[in-house]
Design goal:
heterodimer, A: alpha/beta, Dihydrodipicolinate Reductase, domain 2, 2 domains, B: alpha/beta, Rossmann fold, seven-stranded mixed β-sheet, six-stranded parallel β-sheet
Chain lengths: 325, 326
Amino acid sequence: MNLAIIGCNGMGAMHAQMATNCGLKLVACGDKRKSIAVALAKRYDADATTNCEALAMRDDVDIVGIMTPTPTHTEYVAAAAQAGKHIFCEKPFGRTVQQCREAIAAVKKAKTKLFVGHVLRFFHEFETMKAQVEGGKLGKVGFVKMYRGGIFPQGAGKWFHDYAQSGGVTFDSMIHDIDWLRYVFGDAERIFCQAIQRSKPQPLDYSMVTVRMKNGIIANIIGTWAHPAGFRVRTEICGDKGMLQFDSNEAPLSVIMRKKTGDGPTMIVPDSPVTTSPYQLEWQDFLGWIEGEHKPRVTPDDALQSVRMVSAALKSAETGRPVKL
Amino acid sequence: MAKIGIMSFAHMHAYSYAACVNALEEAELAAVWDDVQKRGRAAAGQFGTKFIKDLDAFLATDIEGVIITSENVKHRAMVEQSAKAGKWILCEKPLAPNVTDAKAIVNACKKAKVGLGTAFPCRYSPPLKAVKNQIASGRFGHLHAAACTNNGQFPGGWFAKEELAGGGATMDHTVHVADLLRWITGREFTKVYCENGTLLHKNINTDDIGSLHLEMEGGMVVSHIASWSRSDSFPTWGDVTLEIIGQKGVISVDAFDQKINVYNDDVMRAEWVNWGDNPDLALVKDFVAAVDERRAPPITGIDGLRAVEVTVAAYKSAKTGRMVKV
């Protein structure tokens, strides 16, 4: 099957690698900035264009990958669906619940398949934690604490800095944890959020959320784009029989590069290598679904629900009140 | 030589404080009183002092300062009687399970002109003192937010009985961090939202996990977890952690992370053995100095009261489902 990618910056290039690892052929690259489209297209001997809408119409394209800034996702989804293509869309699915609803309607009408990249469901460490919970190691779970983040992301054209577009750390990053929480522990009853969303003198966002699940579980999630450096993920799950903790800082590999001058601070980058990247696993899951082998691990409705939850979180942050879901 | 008495060994911290008094050259553990005779006698024996059965007789001695480590709901009566007898008082946290009792405690000591301290040993923890000093230096600039935890293993007994503790994990594990943030920032709490519940332990009538969201003067926002979430098999009793987001940087502290990992086959469980300073010792030493010089202990009854006000507002929020003014 042939793939077209819309949005060829960092995420687009990464997904190009993952999809081609799975045997797809990248035939077309679209990006509003020509140089970025051309750079990726060159590596895969594909066509490059700035007319992203036209990409989805190409007869030789079976799957469209959408890795653009969040607010543009659903328009491309609808266009690709109308052209009869299957769609892989990066998370968050859309910037509003309404956008997601409209995109789902378009996909349903076209009878194509839409997969949203909630990749945390494919991370080995998160799958292991899920197995521990489901295997009863912790007994009845009562409390979940999640933490994710580091430096403020750059992103092409600095679109992350515009909270109206990106929704900040709550919408763009914490959505990973929110989706996983729902995946493992079910639907939420209500959500409370404090998010700082500062722009001057420099962009900083730090978000603190409490979710009350329908089954009574309390979850506390911290998301940071307020750190001067680094990236860290932590998860803790507590039950009546035990608890578990994960910390990405506790990694088997640690890389520290010496600077040429020998002075100034340098960064220690922890790494946990695995044979098959979670990003490749999500492509395998999507392709298996297209081939009719199994149901997808992430449904379009899952993706909509996670947008609904982070939208509710931002509403809570704005109003200072818990928001019922 | 300051003569110190301990009133009640209901709270496990009494054992640490007793050992601290004994470790200080300038103090003497003169006597123990306890409303549970057996427990009091055993403790007196353990720490090499006498047990006095009758409270009036205990308060009639020349003991100058008392450490009150009873169940939360009994603090008020014990403080009032000790204050009347002219004793300097160090009261275990939380100062009281409600604002009325906490205010009565403060007023009783004011009226009797005795010094009242609240036992917040965290202020003496070197890692936490370092946070206070770093923030005070101004190098972090404006403070935007803080995410904190005070997790613990399940203490059981009276701690999880509403009628004796006045609340559960939210009562037990909010006040330390509330006090630390007041102390570090020099600002008061204005609002609190709280979700809590009994989710980790069976057959108790208190909450065992609380997730709080607070606001402070100047707009700083705070998340705090007050829990008894550490399983019995966890390698230590719990933690006190803070991550503070400043305009110019981030400071994170895990106050009890000065530890050695020990794996012993008799226990068959990993253990964290702490090294470094003992904050309890510094707390007791400062109290003894206050007794000796007949001055107010540095961490006051008002500090205790303010932390109680935050906790009580958290319970009100959990009950009403709204953000509540402190």
